Amino acid sequence: MNIGFDISQTGSGKAGCGYFAHALIQRMLELAPEHRYSLFPSFGDFYFDALMPIGNPYPGRDVHYGPRHLTREAARVFWTGNNAEVSLGLPDIIHANNFWCPTQLTSSRLIYTFYDMGFVVDPSWTTETNRVGCFDGVFRSAIAADWVVAISEASRTHYLSVFPHFPENRIRVIYPCSRFADSSAEGRRPKALDAVSVGSYWLSVGTIEPRKNQRRLAEVYARYLALGGVPMPLVLAGGEGWLMEDFQKHLAELGIEAQVVMTGYVSDEELIWLYRNCYANLYPSLFEGFGLPVLEGMQFGAPTLTSNSTSIPEVTGNAAILLAPEDIESWAQAMLRLAMNRNERDQLGMAAQKQAALFNWKSSAAALLQLYDEALASPKRRVEA
């Protein structure tokens, strides 16, 4: 089988989508080295990383790279042209992973990874440019994709509710897993926490942006302190995202600016340390396609309080405290209870590790390879229409 696979977001600055593609191609190369792999360092005209790839991070006996484009315009011309499929050698499979979706494939089976459509639920969670670009790709997948890979049952359900014409039997759930291979790793303390004691801080991981709900989490933390909660600092680990320019002002207005530690971007080693040594991991996100910070925290034994919405209950099972993300009082009360009950906190941590162990990349890659076989054995969707 000749597998064409989009690795455009797997460069040094990769985030959730990039980690998904990165881990899947690594495991597929291990499980099925007999296939030919054509890896695309640029894919489409929505996302472009001129430095991809710097080297060859995916060694294998039959691994090849597709065209390397030096400019976004060159990538756009190639990927939107009618000759792209032929120029790529007519792969059996072309798998899109960065929201962009081709519509001109006539031979290759087009597989499309669908992450989420939070931008449809609430347009204020992102910028207009990102919202339009992402929805354009998802919309085109509903027209042109032969199969869709959804990263959770919640994402699958949402996709079919927005595009009810898409055949249900051609959308398959394949779960992401943790980026961290070694669950025993200790990590490295971030400098921002030099003055903070091990096991004595609340943690929340994620880019500071409206959908991650840190503004409301700050209000929860202020309420927790007002109710007499143990004054453990709140550590926010993540870079600054969009539409949150006044977040520091919000902390000051709540009177908690001195109790909140904002680390900015942290390395993987620092993130491991943060998960392993927090009192609990707080993740009040309003909408998730999956929720990797929840799974990764649980992997390292972080007791978890998180949202009861969208995909997150699929990740946590019964191993976390689930709360409505808008309910400030319930969150504050849950934090108070956990702060006063070390035994419950420790039991949550043990349950978290057991739950996290259920997710592994080898199983996800095997499921994807099976889907490729099914796709090749089936006619292209457009032919059926």
Automatic annotation (TrEMBL):
Q: Which domain of life is it from?
A: Bacteria
Give a Pfam family name: Glycos_transf_1
Q: Which organism is it from?
A: Methylobacter tundripaludum
Q: Does the keyword Nucleotidyltransferase apply?
A: no
Q: Which residues form the Glycosyl transferase family domain?
A: 202-355
Kindly state which keywords UniProt assigns to this record, in alphabetical order. Answer: Transferase
UniProt GO BP? lipopolysaccharide biosynthetic process
Identify the InterPro entries for this entry. Answer: Glyco_trans_1 (IPR001296)
Spell out the protein name for this chain: Glycosyltransferase involved in cell wall biosynthesis
Q: Which GO terms describe its molecular function?
A: glycosyltransferase activity
Instruction: Output the PANTHER family linked to this UniProt entry.
Output: GLYCOSYLTRANSFERASE WBBK-RELATED
